[in-house]
User: What shape does this take?
Amino acid sequence: MTDWRLEIEQRVRGEHQRDAPLAPRTAVRIGGPADLLVKPADPDALAELLRAVRELSVPLNVLGGGANTLVADAGVRGVVVRLPPDLAPEAAAGETLVLCAGAPTTRLWIRAHALGLVGIEFVAGIPGTLGGATAMNAGTRIGEMKDVVRRVELATADGAGFVDAAALRFGYRSATLPPGAVVTRVEFSLRRGDVAESERIMQEDRARRRATQPYDRPTFGSTFTNPPGEYAGRLIEAVGLKGHRIGDAVWSPMHANFVSNLGRARAADVLALMNLARGRVRERFGIVLETEVRLVGAFAPGELGELGLVHAA
Ligand code: EPU
Assistant: This one.
């Protein structure tokens, strides 16, 4: 058997770490190690990585800022790639801004405001990276990525280029990337406006979230998407699970659609909470809760329970 890790380390310029712990790289601080974590030095190194994993048939996962992500206790087989925040050049012209996928979401409003551009107020409520937020069409009640993303630069083993946002088929907290493609830059279409007013809206949104969402403990944010015309938090509370604890994972007493990690929670504990809530809500209301958190890594089918149906891929 070839030593695929050695081959990738030799071919791909950048930082490599074997058996890299992923828990500290996720917002909820849960999960086992990646066989190989790679931070490519530049776009050519990323292209080489994409060619190498294809040739070697090694699975590849992209880790953004670790928000909205639950990594399996057994970790992630193959390569996990983390893009540096400055992989490629940024650009700004008129009301258009091009930023790197590996940059934190805060970069969007900092750059926009510096240029007198607005329309990005919702991003105050979104953690993680711009690439991750784009790849799932992250959003809040006041807006979502699809409102401002015009084009996306994709890297594949066969080359890189910008595609129209329409190619990503944005939905509610979802987008579809071509298989094996990695978002490397995002082009935003913004508008000139009142930056002070934009800042005020963001402050207000932050204050509201601080009052209603539990950020005193590690969490990945909303666990399930809101079903049409309903709220996952309301439903989980209605079936008596608000504050329910399994191991060190708990449905937050502050917001029932948030799982808090009380210390040493395992992915298995979180999945048990999710399966319990999903089962009870379906029984009582006939509503199937859909998973918003991205499940990454080597979950056993039994461990996923009903959630396996949602994340069969
Ligand atoms: N509710 C309950 N019990 C709870 C929690 C909520 O009854 O324990 C009720 C609230 O009273 C309210 C309704 O459910 O009537 C909605 O709750 P909330 O206003 O807190 O918003 P949300 O729908 O739960 C959504 C996004 C959040 C975003 C907020 C604010 C989804 C799945 N979640 O939450 O996004 O921050 O609106 O814009 O769309 C995320 O996606 O990770 C996220 C945090």
User: Anything to note?
Assistant: Residues 309-313 have pLDDT under 50 and may be disordered. The longest helix spans residues 267-285.
